[in-house]
Amino acid sequence: MGLAFTIDSPVKVARFGIASVISIIEDRLIESMRSYYYPFANLPFVPITTKEKDYRAKRITDYLNLVNHIVNVQIQKLKNEVFEAGSEIMKYFEMLPDDNKAKQLYRRMMRTESGPEKEGMENWLRGQVIPGSIDVNIMTKLDKDNFDKAGVLVENGSDAVSALRGYADSDLSNSSVVLSAGMNPRLYNFLEKCSQFEADDNGYFRKKIIIKVSDYRSALIQGKYLAKKGIWVSEFRVESGLNCGGHAFATDGYLLGPILEEFKAKKEELTATLFGLYNAAIQLKGRKGFNQPHPISISVQGGIGTAEEDTMLHDYYGVTSTGWGTPFLLVPEATTVDEATLTLLSKAKKEDIKLSNHSPLGVPFHYLKATSGALEKLERIQKGNPGSPCTEKHLVSDTEFTKDPICTASAKYQKLKIAQLRSLQLPEQECQEEIKKVLDKECLCIGLSNAAPLQYKSHFLKHLTAVTICPGPNIVYFSDIVSLQTMTEHIYGKVNIIKEPARPHMFISELELYINYLKTHMETDAGNMQNPKLRKHYHAFSQNLLKGISYYRSRAYIGSLEPFFSQALQTAEEAIQNLNRQYAFTETAVV
After folding, report:
1. Whole-number Å distance between alpha carbons of 376 and 369
2. Strand, helix or coil for residue 162
3. Pairing of strands 321-323, 175-180
4. How are beta strands 207-213 and 321-323 bridged, if at all?
5. N or C: which end of the chain has fewer CB within 10 A?
6. Domain segments of the chain: what residues?
7. How far is CA 393 from CA 25, 143, 356, 452, 573, in A?
8. Each residue's pLDDT tens digit, 305-349
């Protein structure tokens, strides 16, 4: 969801029992939000400046405490409201699913005449009002080292580690940290020092760990690494490799359905394996062991768009919860998107969402065209000043021209790289293609942060106001800016806000994205396709897709999706076979 778009979502939705996730990697944005929300809460704002020791972690801790305070005040106010039309306590229960016990009693209470029975039901319902969890996200790859004014490395002061410390020291409870973008040994090792993530004698975790993964193997590897340190992973959040927003960590052709099937089949084995390692580790540390494993949840996100898809994921695959991210970008009551970008999102068509190479991380990045960030980048190029001022430095990684890492979207890097390319005397077309790859890179630290400061007119960075946004491809099927209640009604199947009747099932959308991904990469590598290693990779990729198609054909839930699902599978299979024929792949072509 980027940096700014859910930076204050708990303030908007937690009082209605809805969980949300705050990205805590950009501390300057967090300081900007502190300056806005302290007056909002009628509290005095005291800046935490960069001159303070450990200012980054302090900003994060304080902001999370502030958000938690605001939500607790909201909850108490909501609980004290009268059950009458327009009240937030009515809205709380109206937005619950119909099969929820509290929702059913609420409806009964509303039909009951005034008296002791009705009053008793109202009091019971007030006791059921609990806030949605305030969770945080740390993208583990963003872990730049930081140095003090004397140039000395700050111990445990890297971006990701200081963010983790900031969260651990906050007063949030019944909360989780979501670790995404792969394993970071430094960050994972530091977790061992954080007692805040330990279970009490009853097995209760005040703060939990969630790891975002693309497949079962990743969950097993990362879970075992942490279990050996006495750290329990409470949830593995499975995300589609390509049918997602932001950075897209594509698998080698493994599709979401088969991946979830493996989690379903091996969940007990996964739990037992991790528990054995975990229990032994905590006992070695002198802590009391447990007689049975703590629960492990499996959740899923990426491309979910209908109540039918959501129900299928729960009922067939047994997932604990589902994540709806991209559609909520069109819900101002839940996310923070500036007006101009919100309008672009609502009008987005398929051709407006691009799987790009714009990210300085070098990872494919879903990207909405024509944002102010894209226009600003183009204007700089046209003026002969390509690249961005690198003020935040969260994505610095390149040392090709400098001793200290710099960002490939920065003006410094792009000028140096373009000069180098022009000095190589490459053929003009090849030179321009290579220069375009350099110019494609875009500043994400600021672009993904600016929406909230723009919306709230809260200072972030002077003269840098451009916005970048990274919705999943699913956004093209959502065109209306809707209320929070309307979106929840869509999720539970009470209304349908998708106007496109030909929207493919989420599994078909992902399959089509993978075929396009495979085709693009094969075309790019066409000149090297006789390389045995490359041929083996692409052959395996296409075979994994074909196995996924075969898997979908065998599923019982397909019957409810006919006739379009089977036809889409047939079309996809033919497209893959055509690619295989084009590059002379057969079962015996690669040894």
Report:
1. 12
2. helix
3. unpaired
4. unpaired
5. C
6. 1-173, 338-473, 504-582
7. 11, 10, 21, 20, 44
8. 999 999 999 999 999 999 999 999 999 999 999 999 999 999 999
